[in-house]
Design a protein that fits this description.
390 residues, Aspartate Aminotransferase, domain 2, seven-stranded mixed beta sheet, 12 strands, 36% helix, globular
């Protein structure tokens, strides 16, 4: 969370005063307006606000028709929710390497494709854009759906197009740790009407046919799903955050550029697939050894993060996935389903060595959009001192 204040307080107060706390209402209708505003901001035909990024990912996969017997390719470096969404849909997550940009390797993606591969989830981790042109080219050639996980990249872009709007569908997240926040929340973006209708039904199957006219114009037959319905308060907060998103991104990008320009030639940065579209949340510095990265990260004034130490963002720490525990009840567990019998992956902690090595040699320096030049100069000086540069 970067910027939140009186505007959000006033929005919450308005919702409480009108009593329009439920998603479907005849007063504030904040969820409906939030979805309309997202469609306009991101340039998609459909937007569906729900409870989390995980909910959006799962709903999108269901909307794509993904299920038992299918493989979905995910990068080895992403939050566990990316893989868990695949399991929630009944399919098998196939874990592949990232490349030197810390995002899904197009080569690793292409090499992992089988006759069972039905989707790929490129993840714009830390707001770093994936190589979406190449990924979409490979996917189209092989008849594979593309679901962008833009949960850490709200508002970012690749080639001038917003992340989450380039593939067949995209997922955003608005929890406390994201670029914009609703406290908790997520959204699905897509231009595909059939995918949207299925996701709409799945995300709130108990109420979508009961409250309001949500099924107006929907041609998909109802089926049982889940309950990922949002509420008026979260939607009202999000509406104010959407207004601030581009200014937050502008200031993040400007501050990241200022720091990187000052450190140019002093250190080696992780390369970007689109530095202009990068969200600017993180300066990523690469070292030639894990020892040097670890030493630098704890130096005075750095407060660095080595991504190998970020728990469930690294595949080997996805305990439930690695242990193939897809559900409590064995008959509901995709890893034990007959349809998946021949495609259950052989997960090993060392199966993505390049990813593990790279993550151990990178240090993140978090960027704040409200840093002054004085604050940034202090950070720059600390980096130079830690690197032994005058």
């Amino acid at each position: 969370m970067y910027r939140i204040g009186q505007e959000e307080i006033d929005a919450v107060a308005r919702v409480i005063e009108t009593g329009a706390l439920f998603k479907i209402n005849s007063k504030g209708q904040d969820a409906m307006y939030a979805e309309e505003e997202m469609k306009e901001k991101f340039g998609t035909k459909h937007a569906l606000l729900m409870t989390s990024g995980h909910a959006a990912l799962t709903s999108a996969l269901v909307g794509m028709g993904i299920g038992p017997g299918d493989e979905v390719i995910v990068p080895a470096y992403t939050y566990i929710s990316s893989a868990m969404a695949v399991v929630a849909a009944g399919a098998m997550p196939v874990i592949v390497e990232v490349d030197d940009t810390l995002t899904l390797s197009p080569k690793a993606f292409e090499a992992a494709i089988t006759q069972n591969t039905k989707a790929v989830i490129p993840v714009h981790i830390k707001g770093f854009p994936c190589r979406m042109d190449k990924i979409c080219e490979i996917a189209k050639k092989n008849g594979i759906k593309v679901l962008e996980d833009a949960c850490q990249a709200d508002g970012g872009s690749f080639g001038g197009k917003r992340l989450g709007t380039i593939g067949d569908a995209g997922a955003l997240s608005f929890n406390y740790f994201k670029i914009i926040t609703a406290g908790e929340g997520g959204a699905l973006l897509t231009d595909d009407k059939a995918l949207f209708e299925r996701a709409l039904i799945y995300h709130d199957s108990g109420a979508v046919a009961y409250f309001g006219d949500q099924l107006s114009g929907v041609e998909t037959e109802l089926f049982c799903g889940n309950e990922y319905r949002t509420n008026g308060i979260s939607a009202a907060i999000l509406r104010e955050q959407i207004k601030k998103m581009d200014e937050i991104l502008r200031d993040l990008r400007n501050n990241k550029k200022y720091i990187m320009d000052a450190l140019c030639g002093v250190c080696e940065f992780v390369p970007s697939n689109d530095i202009d579209g990068d969200c600017g949340t993180t300066v990523a510095i690469r070292f030639d050894s894990a020892e040097k990265a670890a030493e630098f990260s704890v130096a005075e004034g750095i407060s660095g993060i080595v991504p190998i130490n970020t728990g469930k963002h690294v595949y080997k720490n996805w305990t439930a996935i690695m242990n193939k525990r897809g559900a409590l009840h064995p008959l509901m567990d995709p890893f034990k389903m007959e349809a998946n019998r021949d495609i259950v992956p052989d997960y090993r902690e060392d199966m993505c060595p390049y990813t593990l090595d790279l993550l151990s040699r990178v240090v993140y320096i978090s960027v704040d959009p409200d840093w002054t030049k004085e604050m940034m100069n202090e950070k720059i000086a600390a980096v130079k001192k830690a690197l032994g540069v005058d």
